[in-house]
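FORM 12-B: Structure-to-Sequence Request
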């Protein structure tokens, strides 16, 4: 027989405040307050309302061992050590049956994500066509993975929730538009397409058409992002004509067209990355190309309300006075911190620009002054690097150089205040040395870096998801529960 976790509580509780449950032939006794803590919509709460004069225990035809784990969860808000005897799927199924899945989700959630304490806890590998072509993560730590022409969904517990096949042969970009709606695009097939996970069905398509211009045909999607009401997708055609279409999320209809250009020069390429910034209402687009003569590209900010460009920089070209010849190889946006980040192709330095004070040359460069931590050109940074990726998440900037992963984290607030004067001096003497605000750390171990070149990095919930070139599945990175007591300085 199971009893209340503390003898004091058992001694003080009145018999009318207790309830007996027979789960799968095993007798449990606990307090009404414990099983009611599952919430008014839970099965256990409903069972607690039975007549108190009924001497027979409530019978539930379920696994008693897993129920013991869940009962302990209701008592302490933590999973007991015995939970490890069961799979995530078994615990999730039973918690859903009892209506306490939110409690299990809270207890199973990883600790607050800290890049400097992150490590690989596993990988997600779709059963078929395991090489991921694109993926998108959600705020609850779930992720959707495109592989070939299919999309697989994995829930907050990283359990497979479903897979549907699209009409596309390959999916190169994916965006979560609604909780169950995905917008997908392919560079081998025309159009932006919307699919409903709940019904595994196609719900709409958007094509870029212009009857007055015969060059506009078979327009393919290169990048997708979404705001509260709209989806933005960059299209290009075989003749390199390109633009960004704003699509109404509810009606799946084109609202406006932004940034139409010819695409015959680097500064007119189709944006390969789009990010909407809710705080300012601007759309950030960037394009990067690399070749025998180095990298070139642009960063551009549009105001969707007016359709006008509000700021741009082209490299090589305008806005590069302090770094001529060191064009960026990767770009991302810190949406919460309102900052742009670029990774320089030759030096490997990380440049930061405050979106509230953009000008001709707004960049501050975060340089590593500890010689032992500088990455050599042959080992994942600088001109010798074949793969460079930058991704911003929760005030941290993650950088992938070939197979190596590093994080630039903001120092603690009090230290930011102490170094404010140092930052001002750095700006005055040429916008160098932004390390007064950020600290660099290497995230991966040597065996991690040998897994393959990093292709994409994206955060979701308290997790970081990483894909690598030619490697099946998506790596899942989490912080350890001891992260809060580890000094980062």
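FORM 12-B RESPONSE
SEQUENCE OUT:
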């Amino acid at each position: 027989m199971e009893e209340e976790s503390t003898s004091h509580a058992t001694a003080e509780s009145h018999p009318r405040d207790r309830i007996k449950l027979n789960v799968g032939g095993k007798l449990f006794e606990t307090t009404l307050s414990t099983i009611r803590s599952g919430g008014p919509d839970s099965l256990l709460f409903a069972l607690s309302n039975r007549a108190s004069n009924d001497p027979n225990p409530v019978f539930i035809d379920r696994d008693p061992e897993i129920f013991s784990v869940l009962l302990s969860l209701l008592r302490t808000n933590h999973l007991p050590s015995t939970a490890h005897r069961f799979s995530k799927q078994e615990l999730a199924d039973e918690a859903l049956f009892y209506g306490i899945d939110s409690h299990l989700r809270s207890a199973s959630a990883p600790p607050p994500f800290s890049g400097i304490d992150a490590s690989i806890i596993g990988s997600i590998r779709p059963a078929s066509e395991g090489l991921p072509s694109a993926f998108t993560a959600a705020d609850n730590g779930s992720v959707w993975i495109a592989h070939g022409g299919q999309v697989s969904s994995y829930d907050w517990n990283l359990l497979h929730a479903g897979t549907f096949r699209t009409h596309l042969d390959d999916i190169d970009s994916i965006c979560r538009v609604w909780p169950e709606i995905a917008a997908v695009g392919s560079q081998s097939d025309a159009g932006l397409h919307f699919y409903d996970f709940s019904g595994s069905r196609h719900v709409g398509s958007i094509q870029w058409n212009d009857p007055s211009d015969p060059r506009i045909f078979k327009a393919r999607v290169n990048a997708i992002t979404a705001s509260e009401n709209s989806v933005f997708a960059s299209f290009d055609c075989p003749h390199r004509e390109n633009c960004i279409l704003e699509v109404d999320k509810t009606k799946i209809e084109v609202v406006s067209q932004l940034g139409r250009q010819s695409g015959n020069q680097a500064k007119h390429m189709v944006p390969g990355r789009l990010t909407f910034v809710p705080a300012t209402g601007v759309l950030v687009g960037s394009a990067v190309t690399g070749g025998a003569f180095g990298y070139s590209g642009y960063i551009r900010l549009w105001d969707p309300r007016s359709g006008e460009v509000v700021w741009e920089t082209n490299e090589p070209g305008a806005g590069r006075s302090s770094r001529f010849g060191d064009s960026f190889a990767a770009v991302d946006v810190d949406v919460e911190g309102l900052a742009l980040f670029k990774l320089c192709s030759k030096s490997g330095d990380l440049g930061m620009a405050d979106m509230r004070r953009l000008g001709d040359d707004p960049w501050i460069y975060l340089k590593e002054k500890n010689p032992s931590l500088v990455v050599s050109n042959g080992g994942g940074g600088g001109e010798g690097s074949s793969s460079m990726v930058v991704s911003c998440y929760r005030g941290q900037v993650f950088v992938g150089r070939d197979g190596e992963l590093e994080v630039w984290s903001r120092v603690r607030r009090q230290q930011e205040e102490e170094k404010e004067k140092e930052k001002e001096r750095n700006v005055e003497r040429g916008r160098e040395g932004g390390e007064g605000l950020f600290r660099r750390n290497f995230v991966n171990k040597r065996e991690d870096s040998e897994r393959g070149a990093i292709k994409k990095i994206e955060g979701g919930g308290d997790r970081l998801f990483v894909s690598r070139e030619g490697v099946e599945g998506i790596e899942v990175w989490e912080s350890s529960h001891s992260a809060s007591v580890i000094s980062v300085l």
